[in-house]
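Input record (one chain):
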Amino acid sequence: MERLAAWLEAWEAALDPRYPERARPPAKVLGYGEISTVMVIDHPDLVHFAVKRMPMFRSEAEVRAYAALHETYLTHLARAGIQVPETHLVPVPRGERGWAVYILQRRVPTQSLAHRLIHHLSLEEGLRLARAVLDATRRVFAYNAQNPEGVAVGFDAQIANWAVGNVSANTGGLPSSPALLYLDTSTPLLRRQGREQLNPELFLRSAPSFLVWIMRLLFLEEVMNRYYDLRQVVLDVIANLYKEKRGEWVPALVDAVNRWREAWPEFKGAAFTVQEVRRYYRQDAFIWRFYLAARKLDRWLHHLVGREYPYMLPAKIER
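The corresponding structure, as predicted from the sequence alone:
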């Protein structure tokens, strides 16, 4: 990895985040997150990895703390029974601009990505996949409840964060027992004795400067708490079907989850309703549309005054 780190440092130094496809060699963007971008870079040592770029670190000490926490997070996911593809973390200095972290994750076949796969499944298969995702999620919360060290893992179980490792390359159908792979480890939410280990300010680095104070005041704690609450995580999983253009499955999944939860000792809270799911999704979609518009304005202001804007932004988000 040392040779690859040196190469990524040179690549990062020449990168224009507005046009990753113009880099040498070029990068193809696979997806956008709030603080990261997932790419494939046309380099012989990288073509088999999804490369997640996170350019918001200000010091080597911040990078070391994040890397140690990320490794600990992977350890606890494994102990909770969650399988993650081969993953490597590569810190890259950016001179006076701070540091970036590149997370390299072994690529899985496109047809195995759950948010792609659901468009080829029947409703019955879709519910079976949802049950597998929620059973895996329950294992995390059962692990949290039983952990003797007082460790709690924060977990974002939305469908886009999973792949099905044993999907048939020929049929693309859902196996009777889906072998799930969890893909999103870049936000290693972890608490010890109730204290959050991830520096919450990292969430705010990509936020427009004119919104940082209100996000810190109103949203940061709520967003971070969400992923430690099983009911909130399940609600988010159901609501994300609207984002993935499978909203017609929501009523059936709501009914199924309300049946399943009766056997979940980890579950606390009221039954779900379609109205609650729809309301949650609309609020979430509005927030992220507004947030993207504000970030684009912030990027324009950065360029106006000649400052670097280090993040890659999508032209639009599908919600």
